[in-house]
Amino acid sequence: MPSVRPETTQLTGAVTSIPKPSTATPADLLLAFVTSESSTFGVTLTGGTPEWQPLASKSTVNGSGESTKGIISSGIWWKPAGVGETGWTLEAPSQYLAVAVIAVTDAQVDAPLFTVSADQTASTVFTTVTSPAGPPPGIGDLELRWVAGDDYTSSAERSWTAPGSTIEVCDLTDRYVTAQLTRQTLTSATSAVRNHTVGAAGLYAAHGFTLRIPAPGSGRAVPMSSAAVHRAATW
Asked: With contact defined as beta carbons under 8 Å apart, do 30 and 78 qualify?
C-alpha cells in the first residue's frame, strides 16, 4: 500500500536549489509541488537521474492590469528516486514560492493520474479552497491533494485546516503565497471534492489538484474519457 515517507522537503521564498527528502530511497516515487505568485507558470525543475517529468500545471488570475487582485501558478512533477542524487535545481519567474517534495514508497512508479480544479477567484477575500474529486480510485490507493492561493494585499502568515478524513503533510506560507498538501489512503472506490480552510487574511485567487497513486502491479485500467483527468502536461 503506497505511503508518504516521513521526511518532506519544505521550502519558501526565493528557492533555487531543492534537497532530496532525507528518507527517500531508490525506486521511491518522488513528487514535487511548486506554487509561485506569477500569472504564467514558467518554472523549471532539473537535475537527477532520471530527470523530473512534468505532470500538471495551472495558472489562475483574478482580474487584469491594475485591477489584478491575485495571481497564482502551480505545477507538479514526478520521477523515480535515483541512486546517489542529493538535490535539484529550480528556476522560477517569482521570488514568492511554496515548494514541497515528498517520497512515496510501495507505489506504482509512473505518472500519477490527476484532476485539476476550476479557477477560484472573488472580488472579496475567501477562506475555502476546493480540491477536486480525484480520478476513479481503487481501495488502498494513496490520494494526495495540493491547494494553493494568493492574497496580493497581505503577507500575513496563514494556517490551514485539512479536510475531514485527510491528513496534513505540510502547510507552507511565503509572502502572499500559501499552500497545503494532504494525504489519504482510500477505503472506498469514490473520491469526493474536499474543502480546505485557510485562516488569517484570506485569498483572492486559488486552485487545487488531486492525485491518485496505486500500489505496484495493481493493473487497474482507468478510462480517460473525462477532460478533467490527465496523464501528463506539455508546458
From this structure: yes
C-alpha cell of 178? Answer: 500559501
In the chain, where are the structural domains located? 3-217
**Taking a C-beta distance cutoff of 8 angstroms, is the pair 33, 179 a contact?**
yes
Which one, of 193, 210, 201, 144, lies nearest residue 173 by Cα? 201
pLDDT tens-digit readout, 151-178: 765 555 568 999 999 999 999 988 889 9
**Beta-carbon neighbour count of residue 63 at 10 Å?**
15
Nearest to 140 by CA among 177, 103, 185, 174: 185
Say if CB 25 and CB 83 are below 8 A apart: no
Pairwise CA distance, residues 49 & 69, whole Å: 40
Residue that is written with C-alpha cell 511548486 in the block = 34
- In this predicted structure, the answer to whether residue 218 has a pLDDT above a threshold of 80 is no
Q: What is the pTM of this model?
A: 0.90
Amino acid, single-letter form, for residue 100: A
Q: Given the C-alpha cell 528556476, which residue does it identify?
A: 91
CB neighbour class for 50 (10 Å; exposed up to 12, middle 13-18, buried from 19): exposed
E strand map for the chain: 3-4, 9-12, 17-19, 29-36, 44-46, 53-62, 70-80, 87-91, 97-105, 113-116, 120-126, 128-131, 142-150, 160-161, 167-173, 177-185, 194-198, 203-213, 229-230
